[in-house]
Design goal:
463 residues; mainly beta; Immunoglobulin-like; five-stranded antiparallel beta sheet
């Protein structure tokens, strides 16, 4: 009998913001019966704020379904009229980092009827662009909003198809790749291809299939988690892109239908809803203690044929960040700090975490790399279990302390002026774990994936 096989994986550390964006909205008047609003985007280089032409912009609805795509003009501008609702965007250009970066989920933005939304998006230069100077064009037979991935082991580059099924993979290092595509209800025939410097053309054959497997499950809200509509998604295991069409919002039972064969990461609650995946539940569902070293460990669903399987999630209330941080809803506008040693402030969020024995801070860059802090083996397993382990990367913070300065433990980390970062805080409690018949530091909760966004903007010094 064909079936879905589920297995656990570790080491997934993701951030969750869309693009670094600043903007304002104003009423545009007009017919009150109108249900659309205008979105105006200005795309520029983060290095010198110069306008970027021919940048690809893809718009998706709140369930990750493709809505529209377009390119910026010679002045870096793009204007779209969209029905009122919630959307996300993906922006790509040769020589620049994709926005959002790999492993970063997009923060939704709202389009309001009869209102204009004006935004400026800055793209960071791809530091490897000098070496990764190949790009790949192709077509998927007029299938729009399909994820295309060129992979070679743990190296992968992704793109999306436009409304005519065309795609462009930017910043590809020359080499041997397997190209395939992903979308709910669609199967692709993978293509083995040698990619050379310059322009390459690779078309991929796809076909609809109404007998692909599905993934079902329930959401449980525990320890301060608030029952509300929550997003559940499947992600590509290397690029961490959400698979188009495989996102659903629910407060109870979910079903993701039409999953093509492949390996995926299943994830619940990307959105800023003050709920997060319960890190202790993740620990207990992993086969080894090592998998608890990251509170963002998820499940890797290996789909082998036409069948269905079940995966349940437990969600808990988030530790709430106070400052510096972007707003809990709306556009992902980073809070600005004028120091290289900002002070991070948080609160329990729910009474369940007032018994926390310690907190752990961690700061990431926009590529998802850990810059400072993070849990240690002692944090996870307790002093006895971690005896003789490697030195930790972060000094623990007492459970009654809710504010701490960056690099307070003199770990040698440095922030850079003009760069944007995101910080996370996790609450731990030391108590008996019956599964291992010993005490361990149990992660009770962590902060929102899409919160804690800040940008270092040092004031110019005058003599």
């Amino acid at each position: 009998m064909n079936k879905i096989t589920l297995k656990r994986i570790a080491g997934i550390s993701t951030l969750s913001l869309a693009f670094v964006i600043s903007g304002c909205s104003s009423s545009s008047g007009g017919d009150k019966e109108n249900t659309s609003g205008d979105l105006s985007l200005m795309v520029s280089s983060a290095a010198d704020q110069s306008a970027l032409a021919d940048v690809l912009v893809f718009i998706f609805d709140n369930n990750n379904a493709f809505v529209e795509s377009a390119k910026t003009d010679a002045n870096g501008l793009l204007e779209l009229t969209l029905e009122q609702g919630t959307y996300t965007a993906r922006i790509q250009a040769q020589g620049y980092e994709m926005s959002p970066p790999r492993g970063v989920a997009a923060v939704p933005f709202e389009v309001v009827a009869n209102e204009d939304l004006d935004s400026t998006i800055e793209l960071s230069v791809n530091e490897d662009a000098a070496l990764e100077n190949a790009w790949v064009n192709g077509n998927l037979g007029d299938n729009s909003g399909v994820l295309v991935v060129a992979s070679a082991g743990e190296i992968a580059v992704s793109a999306l198809t436009d409304d005519k099924g065309n795609y462009t993979l930017f910043n590809v290092a020359a080499g041997e790749y397997t190209l395939t595509s992903y979308h709910a209800g669609m199967m692709a025939t993978p293509v083995m291809q040698a990619i050379a410097e310059g322009e390459n053309t690779v078309n991929i054959s796809v076909e609809m299939n109404d007998s692909l497997p599905s993934l079902t499950g329930n959401l449980s809200f525990i320890a301060g988690g608030t029952k509300k509509s929550t997003d559940v998604s499947l992600l590509h295991p290397v690029t961490l892109d959400v698979i188009p069409g495989l996102t659903i919002s629910t407060d109870n039972t979910y079903t993701l239908k039409g999953i093509p064969s492949g390996s995926y990461i299943a994830w619940a609650s990307f959105a800023n809803d003050l709920n997060v995946m319960d890190p202790d539940w993740i620990f207990k569902n992993g086969p080894t203690a090592d998998e608890a070293l990251s509170v963002t460990v998820t499940m890797d669903s290996v789909l082998t044929a036409d069948d269905s399987s079940t995966l349940n999630f437990s969600l808990t209330g988030a530790v709430q960040q106070a400052s510096p941080t972007n707003a809990v809803d709306g556009l992902a506008i980073p809070a600005e700090v004028d120091t290289l040693t900002p002070t991070f402030t948080w609160k329990d969020g729910v009474s369940s975490y007032s018994s926390a024995d310690q907190f752990v801070l961690e700061v990431f860059d926009l590529q998802g790399n850990s810059v400072w802090g993070g849990p240690t083996e002692t944090t996870i397993l307790g002093e006895a279990a971690a005896a003789g382990s490697a030195a930790g990367t972060h000094t623990h913070i007492p459970g009654d302390v809710y504010s701490k300065e960056f690099n307070f433990d003199d770990a040698g980390a440095m922030l850079e002026d003009g760069k944007t970062y995101i910080w996370r805080v996790t609450a731990y409690q030391n108590k008996m774990d019956s599964d291992i018949s010993a005490k361990r530091n149990i992660a009770q909760s962590t902060s929102e994936d899409q919160m804690g966004l800040f940008k270092v903007v040092l004031q110019a010094q005058t003599l």
